């Protein structure tokens, strides 16, 4: 098994990239744009490279069947 090179910095990145006002606005805008292109729930959605699920969790709460896949 290989060591995850990014594990040590992932929390800081998520906090810095998503917890700021800029990050929250970016996530909101991206979510709105995604919803414009998706069929209505309960459609299935595959989030490839979804990381911490910043798009997957809101889509799941909206009624989508979400599968989150990120690199190992």
Radius of gyration: 14 Å
Number of strands: 2
Number of domains: 1
Helix percent reads 40-55%
SSE ordering: HHEHE
**What portion of residues belong to β-strands?**
5-15%
Instruction: Give the number of helices.
Output: 3
**Largest pleated sheet:** 2 strands, parallel
Structural class: alpha+beta
Query: What's the average pLDDT?
Result: 84
Give start-end ranges of low-pLDDT stretches.
none
Write out the strand line-up for the largest beta sheet, numbering strands in chain order: 1-2
Q: What distance lies between the first and last C-alpha atoms, to the nearest angstrom?
A: 10 Å
Overall 3D form? flat
InterPro entries: SAM-dependent_MTases_sf
Protein name: SAM-dependent methyltransferase
What can you see in these coordinates?
By secondary structure, the chain is an alpha+beta fold. It has one domain (7-69). The protein has helices spanning 7-18, 21-37, 56-61; strands at 44-48, 65-69. Strands 1-2 form a two-stranded parallel sheet. α3 (56-61) links the parallel β1 and β2. The longest helix is centred in the middle third of the chain and has 17 residues, at 21-37. The chain starts with 6 loop residues before the first helix and ends with a strand.
């Amino acid at each position: 098994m290989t060591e995850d090179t990014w594990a040590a910095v992932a929390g800081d990145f998520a906090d810095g990239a998503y917890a700021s006002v800029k990050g929250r606005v970016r996530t909101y805008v991206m979510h709105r744009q995604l919803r414009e292109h998706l069929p209505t729930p309960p459609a299935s959605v595959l989030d490839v490279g979804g990381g911490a699920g910043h798009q997957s969790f809101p889509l799941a709460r909206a009624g989508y069947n979400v599968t989150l896949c990120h690199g190992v």
